[in-house]
Amino acid sequence: MIFNSILIANRGEIACRIIKTAKEMGIRSIAVYVDADKDSLFVKHADESIRLEDGGYLDGNQIIEAAKISGAQAIHPGYGFLSENASFARKVKKEKLIWVGPSPNVISVMGDKLKAKELAIKADVPTLPMTSKPSEAKKIGYPLLIKAAAGGGGKGMRIVNKEKDLKESIVSAQREAKSGFNDERIFIERYVEKSRHIEIQILGDSKGNVVHLGERECSIQRRHQKIIEESPSPRISDEVRNKMGEAAVKLAKQIKYESAGTVEFLFDDKTEEFWFLEVNTRLQVEHPVTEEVTGIDLVSEQLKIARGESLNFDQEDITWTGSSIEARLYAEDPNNDFLPEIGTLIAFEENNSAEARWDTGVNKGTVVGTDFDPMLAKIISYAPNRIDAAGKLAKALESAHIGGVKTNRDFLVNCLKTEEFLSGDTTSDFIERVDPSRKLEINQSEIEHVTAIAAMWLQRQNRNNSNVAKFMPSGWTNGRLPNQKLTFEFENSEYEIEYKQQRDHKFLFSTDKEAYIYSSDDDGIDLIFDGKRHYSRVTVSKNNILVHMPFGDVMLQLKPRFKIPGTEVTVGGLIAPMPGKVIDVKVKKGKKVKAGDTLVILEAMKMEHSIKAAEDGTVSELLISVNDQVENGALLMVVK
Fold this sequence. Notes:
CATH topology of the largest domain: D-amino Acid Aminotransferase, Chain A, domain 1
Shape: globular
Number of domains: 5
CATH class of the largest domain: Alpha Beta
Distance between the termini: 68 Å
Number of helices: 16
CATH architecture of the largest domain: 2-Layer Sandwich
Helix content: 25-40%
Number of strands: 39
Radius of gyration: 27 Å
Largest sheet: 8 strands, antiparallel
Structural class: alpha+beta
Strand order of the largest sheet: 14-13-10-11-12-15-22-20
């Protein structure tokens, strides 16, 4: 079963991650891509790439054909897409290709959460009360959690607090599950409001050896998707870790598990009870934190197991050292209920002075669209203790120069710096309970500093690009001229900058604060302002000026000197909060609606988003239909 070439049936950062290990092992890597990804990093990093037609990453037949064309001997599915598709795994093996993952039978059984729960019960592993019959929901008691029977990642998942919302939530969850996994089956289980999401990493080989690599805590989530993960958990004791690990290994041995996988549990923070949730028969997004604390490369182990090799360590050989924390950087707007954002990255640069691991599939110039999950990168820190790991991760996020698309970067930093996070109080209600600020908090002094940097960099750029009287010092005149003025906009507020040049690269502002330019180039400026000096990266796109500060990036808009007429705001207008596809319109023109009624359902990045009425009224205009593609800010209807 030796192979020296592998096709990665995935995209983005996980494709880059697999390619990295493949290269280290001397294995040739082949990528597959759709037109939207033709300029992506993973395509450039691969030794060879094959274009996919319509159907893309969900078309198993095309992917197998690509493997044949390229001469690939093995297929690694990554996560998402076809990674937990038993039918695809069978086709791969039928074509005499090596499948990097557990057997199709195991994928089939464990990928079906209902069957997995049945097996867990037989293995005497505790499970939550559940049903696949909506008529039995009342017996379990509210609040309930609707989950897709196939797949994960928060797709097809809904919390239901009241019986009147059950029917609509089921329909929406089924539709989302169908779109994401081509399987609309759902089930209902008890919802534990104050809990922790704990998962145990397992590895199994073809000889029956199974070990666990400890736990990861993934409790901090929004929209049922994880955004901060860590290992070890700050809450799990050695005793509980051993019990969970033993339960995970017992279940894995019972089903003869091979390759890497994850057994997920729900942990009650009050009672310390835990319940089996599911088995993910693939590599997890958050696998790097386990690699950091154990020193074991999980992709490498997957490839070795696929070659038929035995694990070269036993359970007692595995140790956990230090603490590792991962943050998922998403193109989304935390101030708009974390809804996805699209656009072009005008900057995407990590700072080498901030020690962290970046797993990413994007760079400057990447276009973030609506076709795929909006995750841009995973940033992983490691330190001997949890406090330092949190500090290093926050510093890495703050030190990066990123802009052009709204992200959750500042929100992540604010989470990591809260007293609750640092003390390990990270239950699943963390975001709602702690309510970390969802944006960059900046005071008046800091905004003065940022706008001064932007003004000085623009002044120097204008001077360098001038073709007239370049032999004269900048700002020289034999007469008295008015001060230079610029107006910047930041978060809907305007800031006017007024300054005049003095001698020796000094500038005096109307606030009586001084600036001195040490150096300036196309990439940034080294400047001292009000006694504080640092080098700032500066990136410009149209009227947008992205300025990097020690505490993060600030996006300013340079206001034109002459006012440009704006568009009128329609009274009662219902605006699209994000770009997406209209998949359901719940009302007709002339219909009366009440506050809270769902009016439109949009789909973006394979997730559904309901748009509700803000107040009672009547639909006077309806401007959309099902299957329409709408832009962010588009007028959908008017409710008067």
